[in-house]
Specification:
rod-shaped, 195 residues, two-stranded antiparallel ribbon
Length: 195
């Protein structure tokens, strides 16, 4: 929030204690007081007062452009005739460089997203491959287990066959329940280590 009294802050003068002067009169009075304290001849006091006023005056300009204002460029041209063109060329080169860097940044972000997408697809492909291999090996193990149970029944060991079948069935059910919990926790965003 700005104070209504501070609206013309740029036009006010500031002393060494950062006090704002409302008029040239106050600034002149302060300068005279400073010069009066000095032990200098009277004829050079006016010159010293002007020097103190210039020292105490603060001029502030905020430029939000890479190029100085036209009046500054004209001043530069008085000092060095090619300065304005060099300044403009410098600003143009800087802008081209900034645009090139921003373009590279955007392109690298796009490439990073593509790479992440490709890695995600590769990971899904690997997961599918492992799941298919797991099903094949599970089928082979179940066939081997059923063959073992059939062998026990053929040898008239029905009790052992029954217990073997129950143990095998319990292992399959436990595995199914365990995998179902892992799958549901993954869907809810939970970590596999928590289940």
């Amino acid at each position: 929030m700005s104070n209504p009294d501070d609206t013309s802050l740029e036009n006010k003068e500031i002393d060494s204690q950062n006090r704002i002067f409302d008029s040239d009169t106050e600034l002149s009075q302060l300068a005279e007081a400073i010069v009066d304290d000095l032990d200098i001849p009277t004829e050079s006091k006016n010159q010293k007062i002007e020097q103190v006023i210039r020292t105490l005056s603060v001029s502030r300009q905020l430029i939000k452009s890479p190029v100085p204002p036209p009046d500054w460029l004209a001043g530069y041209k008085e000092v060095e005739p090619t300065a304005p063109e060099r300044i403009l060329r410098l600003a143009e080169n800087e802008q081209q460089h900034r645009h090139a860097m921003e373009k590279l940044l955007v392109e690298s972000q796009i490439e990073s997203q593509r790479t992440e997408s490709k890695l995600g697809e590769k990971e899904q492909e690997t997961d599918r491959w492992l799941a298919n291999r797991g099903l094949i090996f599970a089928f082979i193990i179940v066939l081997a287990f059923l063959s073992f149970i059939a062998f026990l029944i053929w040898k008239d060991k029905t009790v052992e066959a029954f217990y073997s079948a129950m143990i095998g069935l319990a292992v399959l059910i436990a595995n199914f329940i365990f995998r179902s919990r892992i799958f549901s926790s993954d869907r809810n965003g939970k970590n596999r280590d928590k289940t």
